[in-house]
Amino acid sequence: MSKEQPRVTQELLHAITQHYYTEARMIQDRQYREWLDQMVARDIHYWMPIFETRLVRDKRPEPTPDDAAYYNDNYDDLKGRVERLYTGMVWMEDPPSRIRFMITNVEAFHTARSDEFETYANIFVVRNRRQMETYEHSLGREDVLRLTDGKFQVTKRKLIVDARVVQDKNLYFFI
Amino acid sequence: MINASTLVDLENATQSRRVFWDPEVHKRELDAIFGRCWLFLTHESLIPNSGDFVTGIMGTDKVIIARQKDGTVKAFLNSCTHRGNQICHADSGNAKAFVCNYHGWAYGTDGTLVNVPLESLCYKNNIDKSKLASPQVRVESYGGFLFGCHDPHAPDLKEYLGEFAWYLDSIWSEASGGMELLGPPSKSILSCNWKVPTENFIGDAYHVGWTHAAALKIVGGELAGMAGNQADMPYDDLGLQFTTRHGHGFGIIDNAAAAIHTDRTAYDKFFEETKGGVRLRLGAERERLYTGHWDSSIFPNCSFLYGTNIFKVWHPRGPGEIEVWTWTLVHKNMDIALKRQIQREALRTFGTAGTLESDDGENMSTCTHSNDGWATRKGRINSSMGINHEGPHPVYPGIVGSSFIGETSYRGFYRFWAEIMDAPDWAAIRKNDANWDKIWTNRTFWQNRAAAE
């Protein structure tokens, strides 16, 4: 477990958190193509598993990418989701909703590879759409970030939705 | 008292706007429909071993569904007979007993009360545990799909499915290889009436080209022509629509089972390898069903897309809200790699974050709530598409509509909805068995069409 790897320096942690804020701002501004092109590695595994509510004594393993998931995407899958939003035919997002991401508790660790870092963060999402609709989601996020030519790209992303029953019309957002 | 026959106009194919939002209508639905119909519980493959259980919902009731030592499945209310506390809070697991958190009353996996703490010291042995079992639900399986029913007078599941079982046999039966569900289900809340998604799945291929235009454009393939309704397609030659005695129905697009999948090589190969056997065992008509894409609902609140591999239940939470449960529907005899690939694709399109699912939520929601306006509610809503282009068919049971884009199965759904809402009991419903389809007055539609060809 790479949490046993040393934490990154304060300077690197600062660079990573700034990267995350820029990424969130990009998505909030609906620059999905730019986000995918600049911030997502071509070998991405973008994964949001479905967790069951189980008893503590239940020793069955946690979900793997072979199990049911909200997102279980490679780069092309993500690209399809992004391009759908540019067809001009997504009626549910016209007028567009507003989304805001709060990213906290960012920790970053070295890994066996000198150019990759494992990070942990908590994310709070607020979506407002139409007149009165407000939806909130809290998520955990576990990334592998790769540093290439001075720029970070995410190559593995695991998103843990805390709610068992999703209280929103859909989970079609990126973060 | 609700008079549902005034809410549904069968001749003109309209419904009162009250059907979606009226609390009085919903109150009657809980008694007349959710209290009397077979409701989907789970699939046998999700609880294979003795002691395996899942928790489920039947209308407004929570239930526990558990595999017994003798291999049978029992279901009972998830509520302690002492003070009503919920007995089990896990989605699934394996248990020898269910112990209530409140005072520790313990139930066997069959719902019998097996232990009461301090029974001799404090109850002075003056408690009859045999009378305090959790109330049982009738459980029956069709092709491994388990349904539950509260009404002892309801017909058995096979009779309840009626002619629809003949259709289901082309995909769910042993003769067709059978199907199963992959879990765990995703769960989400949607502020809509339970009938809106049910009617949508039962026969609304009309919305596909418009609501899902964006996703169809990205998916490509033969359905891309439907995006934005831009292609001039010969709809009457591309599929059919069906409705049956108890409101179950579906639409089929011929040879399109795998159409929504992006990686189709293995899935197409599976159909190529298996369809001959289906033809041999069930005939050419049902091979056609086996290789087609289905949008379907089983009355009252269970829906699925065969081919797109999604299976959903719409649990009512009052007239204006539902809890959606979503599983992946796969053929049993697929290899595990194909099952997993299909699960990924199915959830990518019709999961909670799905590329098509994400188009539907708002339509479902505002159909429900817009109809509640003081002036709006006085009007009626319309499901007349394809009326009279339908009738009894020489081969297919029930009533068959000429196009998969039509509202034949809407009309059949609301016909039975009105019937069961007004019926005092199942005996009264049975009296209509011989005449249920007489509202379809064009009795020779299919003979005339065959003669014209």
Draw up the topology in text:
The complex is a heterodimer of chains A (175) and B (453).
Chain A: H1 10-28, H2 32-39, E1 40-49, E2 69-73, H3 75-84, E3 98-110, E4 116-129, E5 133-148, E6 151-161, E7 165-166
Parallel strand pairs in A: 1-6
Antiparallel strand pairs in A: 1-2, 3-4, 4-5, 5-6
Chain B: H1 4-7, E1 8-9, E2 14-16, H2 18-21, H3 23-34, E3 39-43, E4 52-58, E5 61-67, E6 73-77, E7 92-94, E8 97-99, E9 106-108, E10 113-115, E11 136-142, E12 145-149, H4 157-161, H5 163-172, E13 179-190, H6 195-203, H7 208-211, H8 213-219, E14 239-243, E15 249-253, H9 265-282, H10 284-290, E16 293-298, E17 302-306, E18 310-316, E19 322-331, H11 336-350, H12 357-370, E20 380-382, E21 390-392, E22 399-401, H13 408-422, H14 426-430, H15 445-452
Antiparallel strand pairs in B: 1-2, 2-20, 3-12, 4-5, 4-7, 5-6, 6-11, 8-9, 9-10, 11-12, 13-19, 14-15, 14-22, 15-16, 16-17, 17-18, 18-19, 21-22
Description:
The complex is a heterodimer of chains A (175) and B (453). Chain A has helices spanning 10-28, 32-39, 75-84, and strands at residues 40-49, 69-73, 98-110, 116-129, 133-148, 151-161, 165-166. By secondary structure, chain A is α+β, with helices and mostly antiparallel strands. Chain A is built from three helices and seven strands, in the order H-H-E-E-H-E-E-E-E-E. A six-stranded mixed β-sheet of chain A has the order 2-1-6-5-4-3. The model of chain A has no long low-confidence stretch (mean pLDDT 96). Chain A is 21% helix and 41% strand. By secondary structure, chain B is α+β, with helices and mostly antiparallel strands. Chain B is 30% helix and 25% strand. Chain B has helices spanning 4-7, 18-21, 23-34, 157-161, 163-172, 195-203, 208-211, 213-219, 265-282, 284-290, 336-350, 357-370, 408-422, 426-430, 445-452; strands at 8-9, 14-16, 39-43, 52-58, 61-67, 73-77, 92-94, 97-99, 106-108, 113-115, 136-142, 145-149, 179-190, 239-243, 249-253, 293-298, 302-306, 310-316, 322-331, 380-382, 390-392, 399-401. In chain B, the strands form four sheets. A nine-stranded antiparallel β-sheet of chain B has the order 13-19-18-17-16-15-14-22-21. Chain B is globular and about 85 Å long. Chain B starts with a helix and ends with a helix. The mean pLDDT of chain B is 96.
